[in-house]
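Why this split exists: single-chain examples teach little about how molecules sit against one another. For that reason, every record in the complexes split bundles all components of an assembly together and asks for one structure covering all of them. Below is a record exactly as it appears in the raw files.
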Amino acid sequence: MSDKIVVGVDIGGTTIKVGLCSAEGELLRTYEGPTEVDKGSVQVCQNIADYARLIVEESDFEWEQVEGVGVGIAGFLDIPNGIVKFSPNLHFKDVHLKDFLEEKLQKKVLVNNDANVAALGEAWAGAGRGVMHCVCYTLGTGVGGGIIIGGKIVEGYAGMAGELGHMSVVPDLEAIQCGCGKMGCLESVSSATGIIRMAKDAVERGDRTSLSFVEQIMAKDVFDAAKAGDEVAARIVTRAAFYLGKSMATVAVVLNPQRFIIGGGVSRAGEFLFEQIREVFHKFTPENTQEGVEIVPAILGNNAGVVGAAGLIIRA
Amino acid sequence: MSDKIVVGVDIGGTTIKVGLCSAEGELLRTYEGPTEVDKGSVQVCQNIADYARLIVEESDFEWEQVEGVGVGIAGFLDIPNGIVKFSPNLHFKDVHLKDFLEEKLQKKVLVNNDANVAALGEAWAGAGRGVMHCVCYTLGTGVGGGIIIGGKIVEGYAGMAGELGHMSVVPDLEAIQCGCGKMGCLESVSSATGIIRMAKDAVERGDRTSLSFVEQIMAKDVFDAAKAGDEVAARIVTRAAFYLGKSMATVAVVLNPQRFIIGGGVSRAGEFLFEQIREVFHKFTPENTQEGVEIVPAILGNNAGVVGAAGLIIRA
């Protein structure tokens, strides 16, 4: 085969996932190997290089067809230089990842943070395919995000763009302090953690809810209870959806994206959640800014990371 | 002289202002002529072409040195095609401005909306010179804005990006309806109109304030009274500053710009206003997102329009 291909790498604390993509964003195959954090940063970097070579060797493609290697990683980065300044879960400190990999692989290497990379994956080859302006939310333990304008990641001045979970949306009187130190962050109400906290508060307060009988409340329990007609659970979901929709109304007037893409564990609640988010979005967004704008679920799941990392090369 | 130059055009309802800029953003000369809206759209377009030729003729440059002509205009635009779909104050409807001017002038012509263009002017050659990521607020009758990422205007999917005045920031209990139809918009509290409204409300309510003795309250009166120690006026200024600072905290986590630039009549209140905005911004923005971020006044004043229009060509 003579087509160009790209390799995407998603570095997790225990597993390094590698994906092979066509230049059009089709995920052709994946490979996973151990990260081996305990063996130190050089070994981790060497593993990345080895797995990247391996996935191409095992395919029908030749190494010469590889256009470049993109890497997504959690931590504080110097993006232009591909330096991992600090990554707690990998025990990386000032690791020159781009230089290391470019020397080992003799290919163009681009490094970016995992949230941006996952957003690019969805925007390029997932729920945002063909759409140039996308804003992606990831609703998990926290609320992450990524902004894609003109098909490219918006990194911001210090690489801190897309921190959607820290939009201050909850009014002072109802606000609690977020892990970031500030009050009223979206993450405090619309993450799994936030939803679970509100549920526990309700149970402790003595609210009449079926959640009282759940031993270890998970976000899914709250959604299931709400869908089954539990009013207390429904109120919690409505609150999480309200601030998500309101934050999107704000992003809409600032950036006027065409599509909002929502992924992460919490998004699995499905249309039950999405309908409420859309309703709030429509309520708070001026008519001409919401025209043609869609709020849709992510579709790549756990592959968004490797696909987006590969996309770094194509959308550079 | 052999340097390249660019022409910027700022079309107002009564006057068309034209500016000649160096490729580095230095404003070399300006010219103003009547818009002549009453003579119809063809005459207005012809005037633009004439004034653009004239300003170059009157300079030491030759027409051959002109790199292109940028145009800023208020209204609903098809930006890529340079079509003015609707401009109420010019009585334009589906005017192919870019095509018309490119034929008459035989130069590359780019058209964009006036708020975006003014923002680009400040970002390129004003208070944002040398800074690639800027967010500009214009505090006048309304609150306008423009977003510059990587040195370029963010237009959004339907050209509606940068509508900062319609960020929904005021909590429901205190919110009033905005001209856009939505509740709680920044414009309702932080524009001159919003400040005047709050002052009139205070006077009508019987609050003890020196503003009771002002016949026709202007935003400047409110600032002057606040500076002189009037507590009611001070409270109004604090409220306007609070929501500005809070909206900037939100924009900061979404886009992580390096600099916020504030222009327009209300910004003339100076450090008295800016200090309060910065305080709120610091309160609501996570540490790592506010590091190195500045909030500064615009410096180009009424020239931002022509400079930014010229900048369209350079930053295309």
